[in-house]
Amino acid sequence: MQKTYYDPADLKKFGKITEWSEELGNKFFDYYAKVFEEGKLSAREKSLIALAVAHTEQCPYCIDAYTQDGLQRGITKEEMMEALHVGAAIKGGATLVHGVQMMNKVNKLEM
Amino acid sequence: MIKSLHKRNSELANSQRQLEILSNGIFQSGELPKFKDKIAETGQFPLKAKKLEILQINVGYMCNQVCEHCHVDAGPDRKEIMTRETMQQCLEVIKNTGAHTLDLTGGAPEMNPDFRWFVEEALKIGVKDFIVRSNLTIIRANKKYYDLPEFFKKHNVHIMSSMPHWTKGKTDKQRGNGVFDKSIKALQELNAVGYGMPDSNLRLDLVYNPSGAFLPGNQASMEKDFKKALMDDFGINFHNLFTITNLPISRFLDYLIASENYEDYMYALVEAYNPQTVKNVMCTNTLSVSWDGYLYDCDFNQMLNLPVNSKVKHISDYNEELLEGRTIMISQHCYGCTAGAGSSCQGSVA
Fold it and tell me: Which region is the signal sequence (chain A) (predicted)?
């Protein structure tokens, strides 16, 4: 039995998802490739966004892939960490902004 | 400053041992295909040499730096130096071939005592493109080298210099403490005499090697980022940036093994294999001459002690007919030149 849920080698097999649904798989990968092309945002900026999202999604495959991608693009570790803090700030903010809901509820129920 | 593998008596100072590592393990077990089988898939084996265009001469392994990734295992403790006699033999060959490019490498080529003599003599013959691979810091290493920018200018030498990043941290980590600051100063001095300026004929190109176990990014994008950062931060101009993949040999192989990145790196190279690059790999139009005059298909094969597959083994016996069409010597390190957009001493090839 597999001892862990995640296997780093599975990242290399990502493309195989098309085998069980070729049309949708291909459409996804075409879309994915298009998204990361140079556009109004540079491919470098997109790589940093992807790295931050990879962390907020806590996807080990994506973290592996976009750390590697960042290094290949010459992105420094300081830039990577700064991007992560953006993700962390949004995650933290998203948690704390719900505090208003809690406060509303408390204020409504308490005498 | 770290010592060379030779000085440390490392087993990887032995080229035979390096070739064993590259042929055993994941390649022997069939987990990864051997380079020979990979290029055979598209009918490109055996790889044959075409007409000679570039003569790359390694004038010695002595260097003022000890870079972590150096495939030459160069350093101050290396004493192998090309003699004037061997240089003379190289000049005879340049005279008699149609090679348009002469590419001097090392070590630090400028540390060879006959370096300036060789540059002057080679230019008399009339080479179209005369490249010196300068590590930049040599210009600031000692007073006797301070006039190098003027010397290069006087002889219209094409400068190609290594620069792994536009930040100090990444550069010094790969090339040694203080290298970044000295390199920046040297680039500014080269700019001051006209090198690398937008309309200047004095060519100044940078060479980028990744500072770790990853492949280089897109050459054009990297060039754009380097140009912006070096101009914004230091007012530096240069012409082109060439990206080069680190090949898994010598000190870079030592690093890969010590950091437990070897297998993943070989996987990455094989995965990024691009059959389109094979027809343009540099060994097909280049000949590499070692400090003692022996001939190799490329500088990497020189370091692995894989001599040309020809009756002609030494520059003194050079024979164009016998060398053209020779079968190129290959091993698993060759995946480094065929990954992604490919890699050569002149940057990407596809």
Answer: none
Q: Answer whether A12 touches B (CB < 8 Å).
A: yes
Residue A93 lies in a domain: yes
For A72, the closest of B165, B166, B217 (CB atoms) is B217
Token digits of residue B214 = 């990853």
CA distance B276 to B241: 21
Is A4 within the bounds of a domain?
no
Cβ neighbours of B181 (radius 10 Å): 14
Residues of chain A contacting residue B216, judged by C-beta atoms under 8 Å apart: 72
Does B260 lie at the interface with A, CB-CB under 8 angstroms? Answer: no
CATH topology of domain B11-337: TIM Barrel (3.20.20)
Model's pTM, two decimal places? 0.91
CB-CB contact of B170 with A75 (8 Å): no
Q: Where are the domains of chain B?
A: 11-337
Q: How many domains does chain A have?
A: 1
ipTM over 0.95: no
- Per-residue model confidence as pLDDT tens digits over A65-93: 999 999 999 999 999 999 999 999 999 99
CB pairs under 8 A between A and B: 29
- What are the backbone angles phi and psi of residue B210, rounded to the nearest 5°? -55, 145
* Mean pLDDT over each residue of chain A, to the nearest integer: 96
Q: Report d(CA B185, CA B206) in Å as an integer.
A: 15
* Residue A2 resides in a domain: no
The pLDDT tens digits for B142-183 are 999 999 999 999 999 999 999 999 999 999 988 999 999 999
Q: Which of A72, A73, A75, A82 to mutate to test the interface with B (most CBs of B within 10 A)?
A: A72
